[in-house]
Design goal:
By secondary structure, the chain is α/β, with parallel strands linked by helices. Helices cover 31% and strands 26% of the residues. The protein has helices spanning 12-20, 43-59, 88-98, 135-143, 171-175, 179-188; strands at 4-8, 26-27, 66-77, 80-82, 102-113, 118-130, 164-168. Strands 1, 2, 3, 4, 5, 6 and 7 form a 7-stranded mixed β-sheet that branches. Helix 3 (88-98) crosses helix 4 (135-143). The model has no long low-confidence stretch (mean pLDDT 91).
């Protein structure tokens, strides 16, 4: 029986990334509360745990023949974890804090089967450096509403690209899903028959 890939995500960016990689998939929206970061664990562990919770949530509605892909992205700067901003004020504070600095974007992704068995999980890290931002640039960007549902309060693939001075590592990881790593995992699991392009 052919495997069915499920993306456990409400993110349109992750959907677009999977499509661009030629992967056929369905979507199940996970019902997971994104807890406030607990400093007793590392940002990587936090992101991995949320990724696993999303996969497990989606598995409740998936059949046993499914392969479930879930992910979680956080931004880390100066030991502080930035999730999605809760208000425009918080967005302004985040972007002000990131201005002229290099921060780390961590995306954890998990691949599990429909019987809730974890097949693979890992964290991928990318270094992103912002240019120095003037207050009016931050305020203008926030008015576009783009930052409001993004970890770290910016979208590297959108209007927020104007803030990026340098990137070291995977670009798609910053968008929300490290495609190179994920494709290698699916290939190693023998799932290349689910790709539009086949070897």
């Amino acid at each position: 029986m052919t495997k069915r890939i499920i993306l456990a995500s409400s993110s349109p960016r992750r959907r677009q990334l999977l499509k661009s990689a030629g992967i056929e998939f369905d979507i199940i929206y996970p019902e997971v509360e994104e807890d406030i970061y607990n400093a007793e664990i590392s940002p990587s562990e936090y992101s991995l745990e949320l990724s696993r919770k999303k996969g497990l949530s989606a598995s409740q509605s998936a059949d046993k023949n499914s392969i479930i892909i879930s992910a979680d992205t956080v931004v880390v700067s100066g030991g502080r974890v930035f999730g999605k901003p809760g208000s425009e004020k918080e967005s302004f504070e985040m972007l002000t804090s990131l201005s002229s600095k290099t921060h780390e974007v961590i995306t954890a992704f998990c691949v599990m089967d429909g019987e809730k068995k974890e097949l693979h999980s890992e964290c991928v890290k990318t270094q992103v450096t912002f240019k120095t931002l003037a207050s009016w640039e931050i305020e203008g960007y926030i008015k576009t509403k783009e930052p409001m549902d993004k970890a770290g309060s910016y979208a590297i693939q959108g209007i927020g690209s104007f803030m990026i001075k340098r990137i070291d590592g995977s670009y798609t990881n910053v968008v929300g899903l490290p495609l190179s790593n994920l494709v290698d995992v699916l290939k190693n699991l023998g799932l290349t028959d689910l790709f539009h392009f086949k070897p």
